[in-house]
Amino acid sequence: MSTLLNTAVTTQEVEAWLSSEMTPGNTRWFEGPAEPAYALSLQPKLALTAPSVSDLTTILVTPAHKYQQMLGIGTSVEETTINNLLKMDPAARASFIQQLADKENGLGFNLFRITIGTSDFTAQPFYTYNDLPEGETDFELKHFSIQKDIDLSIVETVQALLKAVPDAKIFASPWSPPAWMKTNGDLKRGSLKEGAAYTEALAKYYRLAIQAYEEHGIPVCAMTLQNEPLLETDYPSCYMSPERQRELAIALKREFEEHGLTTELWIFDHNFADAMGYVTPILNDPEGYEAVDGIALHDYDGSPNVMSEIHAAYPDKPIYLTERSLWGTAGADRMAQYFRNYACSYNAWVTMLDSKISTHQWLGQPGPTMFVQDAAEPNRFWRTPEFNLLAQYSRFVKRGAYRIGSTCGSPDTVTNVAFRNPDGTIVMVVINQTNEEQPFRVLCEGKQFIASLPAGTVGTYRWQ
């Protein structure tokens, strides 16, 4: 009997795909494509066998230890990317969208971030949906309109994405309230004017934005209340204290409920370093806690470990990584850290710049995006290695998957994160940041497999 069981075990197999880093984050990717050693390369299947004695680096996977549930992995649909897309002919545009959407040959993205009005990544003069001549106000929002989003093909592009990915989720983030609502009368810098009248006007403004998108067949599953509320800078931005954000969340939740909207509210939408200090005044207040559905975070300052701290403090409030772009195996490991610290999602920021690193109004020089467009020949665009490294997660980790237990490993050998998909398959992303090939074994529920990851490479392993 035991012989038969062992034979059955050895016939089970593990699928494996590899992608390599190549000059990660380097501006050379704006000059043209190049082929890394591995690019979502399917490997020979590995045998799942009975356990054996081994001196190899060993990762223990425990599916019984179930953590957060995944909402999705995706990118941003900001106006910079859309502006570059519009320079293409319809066939090239369709190919680009297919590469975002395709679950077999593309990225398989299912979560997209849109902006309410303009962000810093735009080719346009900054605008909101309620811009007025200086000195005028519009508390009834009679002049509200998303017509600019229609004219700039933002609405059309998001509609095309939803057609390509019918199960996609869309969430939205504002960079600034309309200027007439702000202390300095400008989309740059400043803060929301004091008083309930302005809080309620802004809540109504956001409610109208969500309704306008829904009228165009674009349901918005969630919105953040202010992109980077602790930043005032020379592009659309708005300082918003946690106390003020709590007031806005309560007013906006009331607006949504009165108009039958189920859009969730995610607070903060800024860096790890300031997260705990910002969310506690909101979530320790009973009304604030009730109004909030989740917590959004960026990774430009601080440690992902704060997400575990927030999860321990507020276990019923899901955490979302709403903005960061990452490069190379260090980036793939950082992404694993997000998920190991309770992030339910990941969204890259900016999907396609052109070979002139344009067009945007950010105040620095961006690193390479997952796609780069040839500025001289707009129908031509290429993938950077980040496309492959992102797809090592996004193609395989399905919505509704749970992160499961796994020992984390070490940057000196391999690190990892593991998930169980709704269909029961286990997916494990393993990262080798070293300059040497790293052999390792995985022990899971009475079985093992042995694999080896080349230097500077990420592997995704999937088994039943």
UniProtKB/TrEMBL annotation:
InterPro entries in the cross-refs: GH (IPR017853), GH30_C (IPR033452), Glyco_hydro_30 (IPR001139), Glyco_hydro_30_TIM-barrel (IPR033453), Glyco_hydro_b (IPR013780)
Domain Glycosyl hydrolase family 30 TIM-barrel: 72-352
Keywords assigned: Glycosidase, Hydrolase, Signal
Residue span(s) of domain Glycosyl hydrolase family 30 beta sandwich: 400-461
Keyword Cytoplasm: no
Keyword Lipid biosynthesis among record annotations: no
A Pfam match: Glyco_hydro_30
Cellular component aspect of the GO annotation: membrane
MF-aspect GO terms: glucosylceramidase activity
GO biological process: glucosylceramide catabolic process
Entry similarity comment: Belongs to the glycosyl hydrolase 30 family.
PANTHER family per the UniProt record, alphabetical: GLUCOSYLCERAMIDASE, LYSOSOMAL ACID GLUCOSYLCERAMIDASE
Protein name as catalogued: Glucosylceramidase
Organism: Paenibacillus catalpae
